[in-house]
Amino acid sequence: MWFYTCAFPAGRIMNRSMYLPLTVSRLLLWMGARYQLSGFLHWGFNYYIGDDIWNRACCPHKGALLPAGDAHIVYPSPHGPWISMRYEAQRAGAEEYNLFRLLEEVHAGREEEIISPACMDFRNYTSDPAVIMKARHRLFEELECLSTD
């Protein structure tokens, strides 16, 4: 089963919008691993219709404004796209997603133990990078043990 984010529902629910903590862009993919979801639909890579992306982050769409950052995680430049911090965070989360799935294949349930302190569900998660880095370190330790067995 695949999952994706969209402009709504808004609020604290995980999304890639700019008003959420940067950690959410990373943890979104961790939740995919936790629920054993097989894919993430990344619809908003560089969708922007407007005249000034640098001063107006909300994207006009069908007479409304999409939440800031929802429709794009890269920015236009004369020499190709400029990558955002949300892009980098999501990319890190995707790499970790693969590692969590690898761990799950060998030790089912262990990935949930590691993910839980950082995010319980799509509404309850940490914005503390130290908690995420501690969980990430534990993931690497678990995988290292697999390689030495």
How would you explain this protein's 3D organization?
The protein is α+β, with helices and mostly antiparallel strands. It has one domain (2-148). Helix content is 40%, strand content 11%. It is built from four helices and six strands, in the order E-H-E-E-E-E-E-H-H-H. The strands form three sheets. A two-stranded parallel sheet has the order 1-2. Helix 1 (23-34) links the parallel strand 1 and strand 2. Helix 1 (23-34) packs parallel to helix 2 and helix 2 runs parallel beside helix 4 (129-148). The longest helix has 22 residues, at 85-106.
Layout of helices and strands:
Elements: E1 2-4, H1 23-34, E2 39-41, E3 59-61, E4 64-66, E5 74-75, E6 82-83, H2 85-106, H3 110-115, H4 129-148
Parallel strand pairs: 1-2
Antiparallel strand pairs: 3-4, 5-6
Helix pairs in contact: 1-2, 2-4
The span between the termini is 32 Å
Oligomer: single chain
Give the overall average pLDDT: 87
For the largest beta-sheet, the strand count, sense and barrel status come to: 2 strands, parallel
- The number of E-state strands comes to 6
How would the global form be characterised?
elongated
Helix/strand order: EHEEEEEHHH
How many independent structural domains?
Answer: 1
Radius of gyration computed on alpha carbons: 17 Å
Question: What is the percent of helical residues?
Answer: 40-55%
Count of helical regions = 4
Spatial order of strands in the largest sheet? 1-2
Which band does the percent of strand residues land in?
5-15%
- Helix and strand content put the structural class at alpha+beta
